[in-house]
Amino acid sequence: MNESRSMDRRIHRTRVMISEAFLTIMAKRNYSDISVVDIAEQANINRSTFYAHFIDKEDLLDTIVNEKFQLLDDVLKERCAAIDEVPSFAEPDPIFAVLFEHIFEHDEFYRVMLLINPVGNFSTRLNEMIKAHFFQRITRIGINQKVQVPLDILLDYLSFSTSGIIHRWLENNKVYSPHHMALQLTRLARLGVYTAMGAQA
């Protein structure tokens, strides 16, 4: 039992080393120029060790991305499961709060994937996750038959505006805290753009 646990820890540690090495290289070089040899050298392992854990660099990238999205999805489900009302003006919406807290905690990963070396469909997947959780919120609140604009446009607006703000936040080196960012987006959502601008109805 102890041997099995020890082996699991070694496997996990090796996979983390490989993943961290890969992200380090991706911060400096184009994805297309990176080889398994480069990753192995950065991780201080041999190629056979790499291939014992991953098929190729595409498999490694998919694994890293899937693990991060699964983690984000799990936290969103946990924090937002019981929310069935519109958030207050004084507290950030849990969806926004989780997004900014998660990205702050995994800053290097998101900086590489969104700013430095965007590859694959990463941005699309992030948008789809944001959209899915807002759709669940709308369904729980029970206003899916009362929306004021077509639901697909509403969800696109929420997801693309949120991911765009995340992108700019990272570009600006996270000058505001995750809580501040989540609270401002919550207030924008509650007020609407024109009211937030100070325009009178």
Can you describe this structure?
The protein is mainly α and 201 residues long. Helix content is 72%, strand content 0%. The protein is built from ten helices and no strands. It starts with a helix and ends in a 5-residue tail after the last helix.
Shape: elongated
Low-confidence stretches: none
Mean pLDDT: 91
Q: Please give the number of β-strands.
A: 0
What is the H-and-E element order?
HHHHHHHHHH
- The percent range for helix content is over 70%
Helix/strand class: mainly alpha
How much of the sequence lies in strands comes to under 5%
What is the rounded distance between the termini?
68 Å
Please report the number of helical segments: 10
- Main beta sheet strand tally, sense and closure: none
Radius of gyration: 20 Å
Can you lay out the helices and strands and say which pair or pack?
Blueprint lengths: L1 H25 L9 H8 L3 H7 L3 H24 L13 H12 L1 H10 L5 H20 L9 H21 L6 H14 L1 H4 L5
Helix pairs in contact: 1-2, 4-5, 4-7, 5-9, 7-8
